[in-house]
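Please check these two lines:
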Amino acid sequence: MDEAAALLSMSKSALSRMENAQVVARAHEVNYIAMMYGLKEDDDLRSALVGLATGGRSRDWIRRHKLPGKGPNYGEYVLLEQDTSELFAYHADLIPGLLQTPEYARAVMTSVPGSGAVDVNQLVASRMARKEALTRTDPLSVSAVIGEAAVRQWMGGREVMIAQLEYLLELTEWPNIELRVLPFTATKNPGVDGSFAVLHVETGNFPIVIVDGFQRRIFIDEDEGVAAYRAIQVELCGIALSEARTRERIEQAVWALRSDAAGGNSR
């Protein structure tokens, strides 16, 4: 810290506050620090850092919505998502957050042990606010692969699930959303290690992988790590049902739920 502060002609306290996110690092400051640390003007890392400091859609979004701060690194993920132009998501047994209805989101959140200690209404409102990215002037492009279990489990009950699946069918008509189901009959699953998302962050122009979990959220931005998940993405898309057959599978799930209701099944 002594050497860095001396090199930058800054006080140690000012540099420490910046590094620990206690103050906002402005673009010209980040550009100066990167230059002093030896990153050339055309260096990809320098461009990405300056781009992030410049701020994009996330800066406007955070002014209008309050972050509930639920979970590890939640705020960082949400802001990256708002500054993203393309997103791929894989979930084995869950509808991705950006594609959820409020009722389904509430059912998911209240399923987690200990959720009674948080304001679920606030969490649901925040998740719904994130969906602004899908309808902005230059909308976020979403490609998702979900396991068939995600459309077959009665998350929240029959009516909640019917509404969620019908919403998915509506979303499949949107030009910026591509949804595919990985069927039960698939003989392999490249995503067996768990759910993940790949974001192309427009502000900074770099890809990043987020591996999500109950107690941890891992951010991977090294080229090798991103390439490994990109390969899994390609494999998943190749194995999953086509978009047309995905619609059919979701329609079948809706029909099954309605049939159970007509037959008096109260599960």
